[in-house]
Design goal:
CATH class of one domain in chain A: Mainly Alpha
Strand content of chain B: 15-25%
Number of helices of chain B: 6
Oligomer: heterodimer
CATH architecture of the largest domain in chain B: Sandwich
Radius of gyration of chain A: 25 Å
Radius of gyration of chain B: 27 Å
Largest sheet of chain A: 2 strands, antiparallel
CATH topology of one domain in chain A: Cytochrome C Oxidase, Chain A
CATH topology of the largest domain in chain B: Immunoglobulin-like
Structural class of chain B: alpha+beta
Order of helices and strands of chain B: HHHEEEEEEEEEEHHEH
CATH superfamily of one domain in chain A: Cytochrome c oxidase-like, subunit I domain
Chain lengths: 649, 308
């Protein structure tokens, strides 16, 4: 292919040209807006260079919401295309690109960012820490994710989107069968974002192990912190596999390697294995924080402690171990024989046991409680039935002989959406609504929030239940169209209606944010839900240093104890507080990573070498930099505390 | 209870749709392997419905009984750590269910990975099924014939499909005869099927393989053994042999109708198994490739296109 041909979109359409114009206009509008309001300095000082875990959390949150709409637009187009038999809204190539980017964006750039947002904001507060262990690395994590996401998202207007599925199975994803640069974007953008994730994993393990408030033994950690710890352990074990697999895929595509090709000893099953050795634990990286969120919200609104704390901890540990020994269930049909399939079938079904324990523990947390139905609680309660249906169909898929019939069909699509949507999306929306007042100092509107919940939960059922039926009737996934004679039409039409309800639900969430930002009362307490854990013990808005005095902890619900049982949470006097300095290097270095990624995608070697040198320069700068942070004097702490409503007990 | 009744009704409605007047393909098996799989599916749906109903019932009970609106304002919920008996039950019952399902799963694994039960007495019909973008090539080595995008199979005889691919990973799937299996470029996988009843069944590639994936289908004609023999004879008489040039032409990406040949491509382009496999280590291998290239072909020109 000629050099300049690579930049052209292989399959242009009016929609893509319109998107190009829209992107250009948006960029111009942002630059003009920031310049007009003279906010460049503010943006740089307060956000782009920040190392504050709360602000990084908020930036993750904004990115995740943007990606939710990007991935959602893909989803609507897919459902619209398949709503009618022989539909010609999209051609095969566009459909293939759209389901590929839908999967990647939703998993890597939406769901991952959403859990990072909540972990970043909540975990240090929940353990009574001033920040994460390595604040600057935390900023680097975010900006690597952000620039990785940007690189991936320009693919559809420059050079073409990846089109080999979010699993990107070789040899289909190899040069032989995917000639456009699309899959290069996949390999490199995910690699860059993945580096950020790996760094986060290390950062949060250290934070949780080393920076807990005095008295907070491991078995006294709040459940969300427990889930964050286990999640990050899984990240550290699983993500290197993805790193290696993507590196091998990149070598195949850019440098003529033969790891996964059809000739010269390439092995196509190797990619599938490596991908799912990472990919299955990834599922639990997404869902364990969600379990943690529900374990915070359900006790709060049942006004009772979490039932079976120890078995909850044991079950997430067990899930994390099992998550590494089930990957073959993603390809029972690869021909590894009855013996191997039997082993992985049993390990897969075994995951149902700890998951079941968790479901029953949540149910028993409601027992003898005093349940108030708020928006976060609605999502948590809606999660239980829908996730149970998604979960039991997972057990069915785990029976490998039967899986030969479910595999690659809409049945599978129904299953994983019915676990991921209630499991991850509901949890993120619940967590967003729950922690929103702590983040922004006002509550989201409950009435609009309830409307969103009903639209989203009913939409989920309407969109995905019909797929069980069309899957059992022989509809393979990823088919851009089907004939009328197949009889799939009615089920896909119902799915489309459900997808529209889901979209409407997400639009109401954005409207809710707008409405509440404008009209909600700013006069709320720092503990509006009457909650139980430490993040509610500090002021709203949370001061830079989180807690003026390091809290003293005696149980997994120290804040509740301080409210009800007279536990003294903040003993002692104000001291000078040591804080980290802001730094622009993470932002700059990640931006150079973006340039490096772009250069690699298009094989512009000179630019790649220059970018690589830039990255090394950033690393060297950090090595020789003298930066010991700064100290907030006692007077300033006292002043801030008084301004925020007085000292905490 | 009203709610329980509604739930049960709902379950029956679902079952009715699943097995009702126009049965879903997977639940309308026409062969022993598909029958085994349909049995496992229905059994697991039954057991799973029990779990779903239990969870729904507990959830509804808790929500109805412990709503704040039903309690006095000064009610303060107690602190409850957990209970060994309750936790024993919520661990024990799932373990029992998983054990039962594991036994069913392992047993059915060995059933679908072997010659179908009741068909062991005769030799299976061996068919090589090779996918290429976006077609299926079926070679009958013993009968010496090859078809593209359609299969003729005898009923009441075990079928052994040898699957491989000329490119991306594909998955050979005839839902009414049994579940699918991957076809890959560097090895041959084996799928055991059989048909009990004559008929025309839908077959397709179920694994995404690029632009032409949606149309990557084939039809399966199951006929009585006598009719099958007649069909073989007829093909041998009327169809032309498959030449290497023609074969290479067929491999080009695209879609083709149904084609028939009176020889197979296995003679000059063997399947990647045994010494031709991608994964045998050590020993020299490149023996037959070149020899086969030199095999002379009398009919280099035209092949007979057999359409239904």
């Amino acid at each position: 292919m000629d050099f300049f041909d690579r930049f052209a979109i292989p399959h242009p359409s009016p929609v893509i040209y319109a998107s190009m114009v829209a992107i250009a206009l948006t960029l111009v509008a942002i630059v003009a807006g920031v310049t007009y309001t003279k906010k460049w300095g503010y943006l740089w000082r307060e956000w782009l260079t920040t190392v504050d875990h709360k602000r990084i959390g908020m930036m993750y949150l904004i990115s995740a919401l943007l990606m939710l709409f990007r991935g959602g637009a893909d989803a609507i187009m897919m459902r619209a295309q398949t709503a009618l038999p022989e539909n010609t809204l999209l051609d095969s190539q566009h459909y293939n690109e759209i389901f590929t980017t839908h999967g990647v964006v939703m998993i890597i750039f939406m769901a991952m960012a959403f859990i990072m947002a909540l972990m970043n904001f909540v975990v240090p507060l929940q353990i009574g820490a001033r920040d994460v262990a390595f604040p600057r690395l935390n900023a680097l994590s975010f900006w690597l994710y952000f620039w990785g996401a940007m690189l991936f998202n320009i693919s559809f207007v420059i050079g073409g989107s990846p089109d080999a599925g979010w699993t990107s199975y070789f040899p289909l994803a190899g040069n032989e069968f995917s000639q456009s640069v699309g899959t290069n974007y996949y390999m490199i953008a995910i690699q860059i974002a993945g580096l950020g994730t790996l760094i986060t994993g290390i950062n949060f393990i250290v934070t949780i192990l080393k920076m807990r408030a005095p008295g907070m033994k491991l078995m006294k950690m709040p459940m969300f912190t427990w889930s964050a710890l286990i999640t990050n352990l899984i990240i550290v074990f699983a993500f290197p596999v993805l790193t290696v697999a993507l590196a091998m895929g990149t070598i195949d595509r850019l440098f003529g390697g033969n790891f996964f090709t059809t000739t010269d000893g390439g092995m196509d099953m190797l990619w599938a294995n490596l991908f799912w050795v990472w990919g299955h634990p990834e599922v639990y990286i997404l869902i364990l924080p969600a379990f943690g969120i529900y374990s915070e919200i359900i006790p709060t609104f049942a006004r009772r402690n979490l039932y079976g704390y120890k078995s909850m901890v044991a079950s997430i540990v067990l899930i994390s171990v099992l998550s590494f020994v089930v990957w073959v269930h993603h390809f029972f049909t690869m021909g590894q024989g009855a013996m191997v399939n039997s082993i992985f079938s049993i390990t897969t079904m075994a995951i149902a046991i700890p998951t079941g324990i968790k479901i029953f523990n949540w149910l028993f947390t409601l027992w003898k409680g005093k349940i108030t139905i708020t928006v976060p609680m609605l999502y948590s309660l809606g999660f239980i039935p829908i996730f149970t249906i998604g979960g039991v169909t997972g057990v069915m898929l785990g029976m490998s002989a039967a899986d030969y019939q479910y595999h690659n069909t809409m049945f599978l699509v129904a299953h994983f959406h019915l676990v991921i949507i209630p499991g991850v999306v509901f949890a993120m929306l619940a967590g967003l609504t729950y922690w929103w007042p702590k983040m922004f100092g006002f509550m989201l509107n409950e009435r609009i929030g309830k409307l969103s919940f009903w639209l989203i939960s009913i939409g989920t059922c309407v969109a995905f239940f019909p797929m069980f039926i069309s899957g059992l009737d022989g509809q393979a996934r990823r088919m851009y169209t089907y004939s009328e004679a197949t009889g799939f039409g009615i089920w896909n039409m119902i799915s489309f209606v459900g997808a529209i309800m889901l979209a409407a639900g997400f639009v109401t969430i954005v409207y809710n944010i707008y409405y509440s930002t404008r009209y909600a009362s700013r006069d709320i307490s720092s503990d509006p839900w009457d909650a139980r854990s430490l993040e509610w013990a500090t002021h709203t808005p949370v001061p830079d240093y989180n807690f003026a005095i390091t809290p003293q902890v005696n149980s997994s619900e120290a804040f509740w104890d301080s409210k009800k049982n007279g536990h003294k949470l903040f003993p002692g006097n104000y001291k000078e507080i040591h804080m980290p300095n802001n730094s622009g290097v993470p932002f700059i270095m990640s931006a150079i990573f973006f340039v490096l990624g772009f250069a690699l995608v298009f094989s512009i070697w000179i630019l790649a070498v220059i970018a690589l040198l830039g990255i090394f320069a950033c690393l060297a700068h950090r090595s020789f930099e003298q930066d010991h942070g700064y100290h907030i004097p006692v007077e300033e702490v006292k002043e801030t505390e008084e301004k925020l409503g007085g000292a905490r007990q | 209870m009203k709610i329980k009744g509604t739930l049960l009704l709902l379950m029956f409605a679902v079952m009715a749709v699943l097995t009702g007047c126009e049965p879903l393909m997977v639940l309308n098996p026409k062969g022993p392997q598909a029958q085994t799989q349909a049995d496992v599916i229905l059994l697991s749906i039954g057991i799973m419905s029990f779990i779903v109903i239990a969870v729904f019932a507990i959830l509804i009970y808790m929500l109805v009984k412990y709503r704040a609106s039903k309690q006095s304002d000064d009610y303060e919920p107690p602190h409850i750590e957990g209970n060994h008996i309750v936790e024993g039950i919520i661990v024990g019952i799932p373990i029992l269910i998983v054990i039962v399902l594991s036994i069913v799963s392992v047993r059915s694994n060995y059933l679908v990975e072997a010659t179908p039960e009741g068909y062991e007495d005769q030799d299976p019909l061996v068919v090589y099924a090779q996918s290429s973008n976006w077609k299926w090539h079926f070679s009958y080595p013993e009968e010496g014939i090859e078809t593209v995008n359609y299969l003729y199979i005898p009923t009441d005889r075990a079928l052994e499909f040898k699957l491989y691919s000329d490119g991306p990973i594909t998955s050979f799937w005839v839902p009414q005869l049994g579940g699918q299996k991957y076809a890959m470029s560097d090895m041959v996988t084996t799928l055991h099927l059989a048909a009990d009843a004559p008929g025309e069944y839908m077959g397709r590639n179920a694994n995404f393989s690029g632009e032409g994936f949606a149309e990557n289908t084939f039809s399966v004609n199951a006929v009585t053994p006598d009719e099958f023999d007649e069909w073989v004879d007829e093909v041998q008489e009327t169809a032309k042999p498959l030449t290497e040039d023609k074969y290479n032409e067929l491999l080009e990406p695209g879609h083709l109708g149904q084609l028939t040949f009176s020889s197979t491509h296995l003679e000059f382009s063997p399947a990647p198994e045994g010494e031709h496999g991608g994964h045998h280590h050590g020993g020299s291998s490149d023996d037959s490739e070149e020899e086969n290239m030199e095999m002379d072909h009398e009919n280099m020109d035209e092949t007979h296109d057999h359409s239904e």
